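Work Package 3 (structural annotation) set out to generate three-dimensional models for the target panel prioritized at the project kickoff. During this period the team completed the workflow that converts sequence records into discrete structure tokens, so that structures can be stored uniformly alongside our sequence database. As a representative example, we reproduce one entry of 202 residues exactly as it appears in the project archive.
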Amino acid sequence: MSRNIIAILRGVKPDEVEAHVEALIAAGVTVIEVPLNSPEPFDSIERLIARFGGQAKIGAGTVLDVAAVERLSKMGAAIVVSPNADADVIAATRAAGMESWPGVFTPTECFSALKAGATGLKFFPATLIGPAGLAAIKAVMPKGTPLYAVGGAGADNFAEWLKAGATGFGIGTSIYKPGQSVEMTAAQAARIVAAYDAAVTG
């Protein structure tokens, strides 16, 4: 089963990243984001692409400039996630054949991001928008636009977000916190996957 979940491994270190991602993939989470404000993020991403590139989509988060996009493209990254909607970053990402997931908050940002070529929209911070806000914005979005809730969506409220029109989720501290054990990552991922599957099928 393919799940619309992006695991956000903010703060992960290169010497531990492979073990955590192995646990995530085993649990059923196959889209992995290493934010660029993590320790030596490009090293982590390179390791993940080399080992798991055939099993998962590997990419970066907190991507703020075209130079980072170009570096990720050369490494073979598959996905670029940003906290903002920078048209140049989006266009460069798409031109390089990678998925672009810019952060948006308003209808104006949504339409600007889509015009620049965004693959889908990352509503961030989702906790401030809320399901009701997402539902209102979805009503004016082009049909079929992927809408991901990030920051405030999790195992306890997946169903509420899905009902409002979310098509996927970015999960950060609910699945990984710096310094936690691989066993904890596995347990958190299992909880997220079970809740997601129940919300989708229920």
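Strands lie at 5-8, 31-35, 57-61, 79-81, 99-101, 103-104, 121-123, 147-150, 168-171.
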